[in-house]
Structures are given as C-alpha cells and as structure tokens.
Amino acid sequence: MDRIYAGSNIRIEIQPDRWVLLLHSESGDTVLAEAVENQPMRYISTFGSQRRLPISGQLALHEIERVVLGWSAKDESWHLGLMLAPALAQARSSRWCELAHWPDPTGAQFDQAATQAGKTLSRQLQRPFTLIPPRRDEMQAVVPPPPPPLPPLPIRLDLWTLKYIGRERANGAGADALEFRLSSAWGRGKVLRAGWYIIWVGVFIVLSVQSLIGKIALPRPEFLPYLGLACAVLLTLIALSNLIRAARRLNRIVIDPLTRTISGGRGRRVGSGRGERWRYSADQIQAIYASQVVSKVNRRRGRDPLRSVSYGELHLLLNTGKFVHLIAHGALDDKIPALDPLPDENERRDPANEDRITPLTAHEAQTPLQAAALYVAGALGKPAYTDRRVR
Predict the structure, then answer these.
(1) Around 362, how many Cα atoms within 13 Å sit in the side-chain half-sphere?
(2) Whole-structure pTM value
(3) DSSP letter string over 315-358?
(4) CA torsion, ordered 191, 192, 193, 197, to nearest 10 deg
C-alpha cells in the first residue's frame, strides 16, 4: 500500500483494489471517498454536500468524464479532481470537482506523487487521465530559492549521534555511509544502576537473615524480615533487567548509500551482516518520518509566534504499511517559528495548532531530528515527511 500526503491534512491510500481519500484530524482518520475498480465512486455526506454532489453518496461511472491533474500558477499548487458529465455539471453549476491539492511553488516537487495519485484513480474508475503541466512561461516566472544547507555532521540527538562512519571502519560499509551511534553513557548508567540495586539486595538480605536467626532483635511487626527478603528478590529482578537491557540494546544503525540499505544491531560489524537485528533495502522502504510533539502557538501576539518541541522520534515507513522505530529524541526544549500561513479572517480554526503530516525538505527543516531525517532519506533515495503532533 502506498500513502500520498496532500495539503489540508488529506492523505491518499493506494491499495491493490482500492483508492481511498482520507482526512486526518485530532479525532483520527476519516474516509472521505473511495474508488473500487469499475464501481461507482462512493463518498460520505459531508464530502458530497461541500462539493454539491448527489445525496446518494456515490458517483456513477457515466457521470465522470475523466480524472484531471493540473498545476495552477494562481496559487502555485497541483490540483487533482474529476471532470463531471454535462448533466451533473449543469445541476451543480460546475464540471470541476476537486479531490486534493499540493502546494508546490516550483511545480516540480510533488508532480510525481500527484501524478501517481491521479493515474491510479483513473485506473480504478476506468476513466481517462489528463495531465496539465505548468507552461514554460509560468515556470520561468517561478525561480525556486536554493535549499538551505543542512547542519553539518555530527548531529547530537539526545542519546544518539548521527555521523559519517569514516574510512577506518572495517564493517563493509562505504566511505560515505552514515551511522547512528548510541552513547556509551546509556549502557554505563544501566550497569551503575544495577550495581546500586545489588548493594541494596545485600543490605536487605543481611538484615532480614540476622533478624530471623536471632542475631538482632526481631522488628515489629514480625513479618518485616520476610518483606525485606521479598524486596531483595524484587531488586534482584530489576538489576537483572537493567543488565539484560544494557547487553541487548541496539546501539548502532548504519545507512549505506552505496547499497541503499539501512541496518541496526550491536557492535562494530553492523553494516557487514554481523551483529544485525534487522536490515532493509530501499526497495522495501516507502518514506522516512520525523515525528515531533510540539506546543500550540498564539498568533494574537505582535511578534512572530514560536512553538516548543518537547519530544521526537525517527521512523521508517515500509511498503507494507509497517513503521520501524529508529531512534527517540527526548529531553527537548527547542523553540521554532510557526511556518503555517495565517488562516482566513472568517476561519475559526488555526491550521498551525492541528496535527499534520507534510513533506519534509531542507526549506522546512527546523530541528536536528528533521535534519537527520533528510540525511537518511538522501542516503536511501527516499522522501521524508514530518509528522507534527500538537499537544
């Protein structure tokens, strides 16, 4: 299954036998419309009423002339929609019914994703597909600014550091390979904590045993020595848990642009097939996700609104729809400006304070985690997305 993200929190899911249009909101995902091969296109009532479509909740195939994707210079966006038959168009006073749009000032950033969405919809509906690309004179008027440079490596991400591996590494990875490495302080902390637990285990055992054999007076109530032994057992289990976690924790993730693979495991041989817990090739990966928990913004203040970033995670999205967790970035207190455009005057809601999944480029990268996502995406030749969670 492929997922294509568009503007206004719209997501398109392309399945082998279905084309689904969804809206993401705070309450979850809502299916707006879907198309199944050679069947009427179905939609929910709110979607139909907003577009003045039949109240039956479906469009028959003969009511759809074609699927159209075009770039508009007016708003610098791609627009995907349906060209409806004359009878239905007359009833609703328009032949055009928009389904999704992609803000794209260059006309070349989301053209492939939008084209894929349009072509797969036309195949499901068994209707022609028409592409209206930007005109040459329009493209000449649009001069995209060069992307800003990403922060240089290494990038510190809480317990992890992203850096180039270097030529001296004998793990089989190329010289330009990247590596996430877990700080050794994390493992030392777990071992030190386990050591303190073991010391307390000894204290509880000594006091409890001495009380039971009469070396020291029994405490009141008399079950306290047995409670001490139970605490010793519990602390022993906690200490073992810390030691096992320290010994088993994945501490390296290698991204090799030469083989277009990413692998995670333990030890210096990760990347050569040894010590690996998992490995994925670029053909198995759909996209890289940088998920961040951010605060709301207040636009009523005179100065530019800022939001706080409190937590972040990096994930792989596989072609199967499964997410693979890579790293977590906690203990954050970053301040970043809100890039969302101001809402219309009559609009009550503010898109800046809503959860959103949007494509990530160097123009939008504001945090070290987003920069790391772009480094990984560039090495694997895959797109990157930012998943904003407003709390």
Answers:
(1) 12
(2) 0.64
(3) EEEETTS-EEEEEEE-S--EEEE--SPPPPTT--S-GGGS-EEE
(4) 100
